[in-house]
Amino acid sequence: MSNDEEKLKELMSLKSVGKAIAEKMIECGYTNLQVLPITTSEELSLKIGISKSKAKKIIEEANEKLGYVFKTVDDIYKERKNIRRLTTGSHKLDELLGGGVETGILTEVYGASRSGKTQLAHQLCVSVQLPVAEGGFYEDSNVPEAIFIDCEGTFRPERIAEMSMSFGLNANEVMTHIQVARAHTSEHQILLSEQIPQIIMEKNIQLVVIDSVTTFFRSEFTKSEIVARQDRLNKHLNFLKNMASTYNIIVFLTNQVMANPDAIVGDSTVPVGGHVLSHKVQTRLYLREVRERQRVARLMDSSYLPPGQIAFFITPAGIRDAEDI
Ligand code: GTP
Ligand code: MG
Fold first, then answer.
1. What is the mean pLDDT of the chain?
2. Which fold does the domain 3-66 belong to in CATH?
3. How far apart are CA 188 and CA 190, in angstroms?
4. Which of 154, 166, 210, 314 best tests ligand 1's pocket when mutated (most atoms within 8 Å of CB)?
């Protein structure tokens, strides 16, 4: 069976999808069932040219087929065993995160300029390619791949090479498994992220980085457009959150900070994005520069981990603990 025939067959396995609708869906990028639960009925009806109730039915059927319905707690408990955790290069930071950066959820790291957000994002793109026994996701000769949406133009292949060599990995090989796209506007960033489910069908994508997720949202909208901005950001984060859980992959977002005018004492730094971001991310990490190479990471928010803080280092080899440098 050709690739197109397979896609048609998969979509037509839903009762409400006939050949004409399936063809139109493929044409519009809905090439598999997994993409449907992360689509709204409004969007599907608009793009395919069908009624909203028909679109709703198609999405419902896909949810049912994929098992996204009420489940018993023991089923959920079993599913949670599928969660994997990726090493950050620092054992202390891994411990703070309950064993590493978790799949299936949104993880956000925020902090001032130079706090190490982009360095940590580079590190994860390399770490993910390590064997499972070393804290990565490599197993069964299937190299894990990463997608890096670069909103600030700060992705550096040289840094990937350095970090790879420090683990004894072949730098050229590692680089072939990281796909980088430079985003130019929030709209472009959203478009790029919407292409990811399709790439996941073709490649073993295990990690998606957006560095930084709020750059364009912050610069493109004026104060009076804040509601429109938060609405767009909310939809984007919803999509990313559903993608992380549907495909059980890591979605790692970096975020900028701003001064909190309400703070009277203590650290007045707060992450950009307000409640929209704080409600969507399940793990929030705050990075702070202490000395030239030393950084402090504080776990600010997690759905189940206790708060805490640790120190780590940015070294030529990558993110490391004090005892490893
Ligand atoms: P913004 O993007 O400006 O908000 O900052 P950021 O939090 O992303 O900072 P980034 O991750 O770029 O960290 C910058 C710090 O990492 C700097 O203080 C550098 O000292 C260090 N760093 C950056 N590149 C390298 C490198 O190639 N080698 C080493 N050893 N350190 C680096
Ligand atoms: Mg950065």
1. 93
2. DNA polymerase; domain 1 (1.10.150)
3. 5
4. 314
Bridge-partner residues for 315, per DSSP? 318
Domain boundary assignment for the chain: 3-66, 80-324
Q: Which fold has domain 80-324?
A: Rossmann fold (3.40.50)
Q: At residue 317, does pLDDT exceed 80? A: yes
DSSP 8-state symbol, 132 = G
Are 86 and 97 in contact, with CB atoms under 8 Å apart?
no
Count of beta carbons in the 10 Å neighbourhood of residue 6: 12
Residues with CB under 6 A from ligand 1: 111, 113-119, 152, 154, 159, 256, 314-316
* Separation between Cα atoms, residue 33 and residue 27, nearest integer Å: 14
pTM of the model: 0.87
Nearest C-alpha to atom 23 of ligand 1 is from which residue?
A: 119
Q: Which residue has the tokens 């930084």?
A: 212
CA distances from 55 to 41, 42, 120 (A): 5, 8, 40
Tell me which residue of 51, 52, 44 sits closest to 11, measured CA to CA.
Answer: 44
Nearest ligand atom owner, CA of 116: 1
User: Which H helix or E strand runs over 286?
Assistant: strand 283-289
Q: With 0-12 CB in 10 A as exposed, 13-18 as middle and 19+ as buried, what is 4? A: exposed
Q: What angle do CA 233, 282, 267 make, to 5 degrees?
A: 85
What pLDDT shows up at residue 269? 82
Atom 18 of ligand 1, residue of closest alpha carbon = 114
- Which DSSP helix (H) or strand (E) runs through 194? helix 186-194
User: To the nearest 5 percent, what fractions of the chain are helix, strand and coil?
Assistant: 45, 20, 35
**pLDDT of the residue at 233:** 94
Tokens representing residue 3 in the block: 């690739």
